[in-house]
């Protein structure tokens, strides 16, 4: 790929799969967005929407996997965009990189903020006198970011071990939650309940309300580019990276559907639970009792913490690679690798600080925080879509060992169409009446990011950034190998 090797290859095939499976994180994704789905479509959209969106995401993952096999680098999306563009390589790479960066920072911030929220919910359940405040949520989020940054600083091997643990935490945790919801309650909803439709969004058009409900699955299935970003640290990356992406999406789709069905059929008082502060937690309390609900909530919190850790790992590799090509302020700082830990330590702490900055507005306003982190999903999926779109336009694409053959272009076309549709949904109003509190700030957040990136590009970057840098011929680069 034209780079001297700085990072050690310690990720096995399972480790590569584990990081994307952990970032997708069915428990964290479903529990953090289930309430929105109860009000935007109900069980019909939660279940059948999960199936439909999972299939669409598999198309995105397959197309990304084909690109990852051809360009297995930490730069991942922005690197491949620069290589696949017919012209204006630097501009395509620039915008993809910044969308990916902002989306990943937002993902880490959103996940850890959600974990802090659920931690406070658990504390309030355990000690009713505890007062939940926005300031405490931000403080807990900052503590979580600190611990995750320390873990990412230590060694790649430690992160790999934690990601392996996280896979079993998710799978065993899912089995425990599903078993409890299946065995313990004496009452379950009838089989036909899966077709129940509810539209409490405030919009009179049921189709629109149901379409918004698809965001539950779309929000869950983000971050599977983590396998791509870890490719420089993965053995046999041209094969194991695309397989890691596909396996993570497939396993998440199957296990997530089981968890979704368990929650849906455990619903008792739909109106009461849908209007609760944390609907899935209320479902656990109503179906299992307070004591069991608290124990299961610990599984959910653990899943969210593992998700935030994996998010940060992926984020730091993107920062490392983007800086290696001189695309970030102070690039010489962020692409340096510690001689002791063999990790991009400075990139780790930059990722942690940027995530904390996104969380800080939550000290005063939940709306402000939501406005900033909304760019997470839009930024990531736009970054996913650009290299897939460029691969679709390219007739001379040279695939790697893992490829889709003659199905490559049709799969890419379907992936691009779905990315456009899902991004439109994420930017549309999601509740009515539209007020300062309910307004969807995602379009404004994305516009601000693109405006800053564009101004910076024309002011300075277009003269010094031409896309991914080549350090020389394969022989010359081999002579530079630092390990």
UniProtKB/TrEMBL annotation:
Keywords: Membrane, Transmembrane, Transmembrane helix, Transport. It is a multi-pass membrane protein. InterPro entries: AA/rel_permease1, Amino_acid_permease_CS. This is Amino acid permease. Its main location: membrane. It is found in: Membrane. The chain crosses the membrane at residues 17-38, 45-64, 138-160, 167-186, 206-224, 245-267, 287-310, 347-364, 370-390, 411-429, 441-459. Pfam families: AA_permease_2. Gene3D superfamilies: Amino acid/polyamine transporter I. PROSITE patterns: AMINO_ACID_PERMEASE_1 (PS00218).
